[in-house]
Amino acid sequence: MDLKKYIDSVKDWPIEGINFKDISPLLLNPKVFEESIKGLCNLVSEHPRLLAGVDSRGFIFASAMAERLNLGLLLLRKGGKLPPPKIDIEYELEYGLGKLEIKEAQKKGTEIVLIDDILATGGTISAACDLCLKAGYKVKQALVLIDLISIHPEELTLSNGIRVESLIQLD
Fold first, then answer.
1. Which residues contact 60 (CB under 8 A, 6 or more apart)?
2. Is 57 an annotated catalytic residue?
3. Residues 57, 68, 111, 165: which is the catalytic one?
């Protein structure tokens, strides 16, 4: 199944110069959504203890994958969403600044796989990795549904040396 057919592009949104990728058509079709979850689950090469979804669209995929793989789910929230105590990190977005926050690992070294919807500049997934490491987790893998390959360096490597893997590649 060609999942690319279920991703719409919205030019100049949310600001001029940004080509927004709308995954709504993929999510609206249960068979297509199921295929995307199967495909992402097949990319999980390490057997982590938890999947870590990045707020907010990463939650969609991470939660469905966690249920399918019988794993726990860790949520990396946008700034201002978690009560203290928490750990946070600020980072640059394509069109501004962002902040992610998380609770400290209950058990240091807990192995996780990061999950997000889209890789553009790499700012969000890089910050997510750094935040998880800072909180005491061991990031084994980073997966995204869509990689916008023309926006970031050819081989995006996170601070702990892992590459970001994707199910779909778009220009």
1. 27, 53, 117
2. yes
3. 57
